[in-house]
Amino acid sequence: MNILILGSGGREHAFAWKLAQSPLCTKLFVAPGNAGTAQVATNLPIGYNDFSAVAKAVRDQEIDLLIVGPEEPLVKGIVDFLRKQPDLSSLRIVGPDANGAQLEGSKDFSKQFMNRYGIPTAASQTFTAETLQEGLDYLGKHSLPVVIKADGLAAGKGVIIAETLIDAQTALREMIDGQKFGEAGSKVVIEQFLRGVELSVFVLTDGVNYKILPEAKDYKRIGEEDTGPNTGGMGAVSPVVFASKAFLQKVEDKVVKPTLAGLQQEGIKYQGFIFIGLMKVNGEPYVIEYNARMGDPETEVVLPRIQSDFVELMAATADGELDKVVIQVSPQTAVTTMLVSGGYPGDYETGKIISELGRLEDVMAFHAGTLEKNGHVLTNGGRVLAITAQANSLENAVRKSQEAARMVQFDGKQYRKDIGVDLIRYSD
């Protein structure tokens, strides 16, 4: 079949790399893609939020299967738009409609959803411009630290953990009055801070049936030992040593099943990925957030461990036949180290020549923010390359990923040297 992936990051390169391995894949396109996707697919110069241009590409390239990578087009309703095109009624789509994407598009919606269906999560309240003073008063009585979340999409930067009352009240004012995150902060969720260890579980569902993919842990902060500002993700590990079979069974029983039952109860036919951000607190799972797509850089450690035909999995998801396929998972450990531009997550320069990529052996360099120009691969984003290694132990996977991260060169390169190290020495 002819397949189109929407997106331009490491997640989409990982999708393209995996799909291209299948004999079921006839032609593969990525819009807009990057220098890495161009190695395994045809890039189309189309913005993924340009719905009309996407529909035209589906027609022109005779696309059978569409996979939506990023959250923004999902929240904005690309699935709904395409479903309304009479001539595209047979198009298979992996990705929820706008109603389903509210799980990620609105923190307030997702918290209310969890509370309705008894899904364990931190206690919270939501405030707006009209109730700002109530929110400030509420913070005055709240335990510290406290979590302040912009309701809408804020490119991964809309969550602040405030250690003091002054910081918390400042963050609330900046979001609501100062419009720090624009429309995304017109509603703000104030949430209890949970102490525990964090991980992510990924569910693939066709609306009724589901498969649980390999779990992962990502590293959000720019600095080693989780210091400095939050980023889109500096690395990831799969599997996760503290995610025992017993704990993952609790996740399935207390989170996955009621989430899918709740979606059905709400009349939402959800066909795609659900990313469940979890905190393990005293052996129990609590949901921090939902995402309506795969994570990045978690995809870059999850997909290499999936041994099943990925086109078959995606088609079964779109066709409502996930119960007919089996997911096979490699027992190996995958570790991703993210190479980022100097200055990221603040201001950074692009257009730096990347060298030594050709020398990498036995690791995969998933392109996150790259561009090919005049025969050179250039940096084209804050997060540039996800260097993924697999090995028969966590220690070896960490070593291989780090060695490759040292090898690749570009001006201003930054990366964390401790991805996965905390798990090597982890004990419950």
UniProtKB/TrEMBL annotation:
Indicate yes or no for the key word ATP-binding. Answer: yes
Q: Does the keyword Hydrolase apply?
A: no
The UniProt catalytic activity note for this protein reads:
5-phospho-beta-D-ribosylamine + glycine + ATP = N(1)-(5-phospho-beta-D-ribosyl)glycinamide + ADP + phosphate + H(+)
- Identify the metabolic or biological route this protein is part of: Purine metabolism; IMP biosynthesis via de novo pathway; N(1)-(5-phospho-D-ribosyl)glycinamide from 5-phospho-alpha-D-ribose 1-diphosphate: step 2/2
Indicate the segments forming the ATP-grasp domain, all copies.
111-319
> SMART domains of this UniProt entry?
GARS_A, GARS_C
Q: Which GO terms describe its molecular function?
A: phosphoribosylamine-glycine ligase activity
Q: What is its EC number?
A: 6.3.4.13
| InterPro entries (UniProt xref) | ATP-grasp (IPR011761), ATP_grasp_subdomain_1 (IPR013815), PreATP-grasp_dom_sf (IPR016185), PRibGlycinamid_synth_ATP-grasp (IPR020561), PRibGlycinamide_synth (IPR000115), PRibGlycinamide_synth_C-dom (IPR020560), PRibGlycinamide_synth_C_sf (IPR037123), PRibGlycinamide_synth_N (IPR020562)
Keyword tags: ATP-binding, Ligase, Nucleotide-binding, Purine biosynthesis
Q: Which residues form a coiled coil?
A: none
Q: Which PROSITE patterns match?
A: ATP_GRASP
Assigned protein family: Belongs to the GARS family.
Q: Which HAMAP family match?
A: GARS
Matching NCBIfam families: purD (TIGR00877)
Q: What is this protein called?
A: Phosphoribosylamine--glycine ligase
Q: Source organism lineage?
A: Bacteria, Pseudomonadati, Bacteroidota, Cytophagia, Cytophagales
Report the gene name: purD
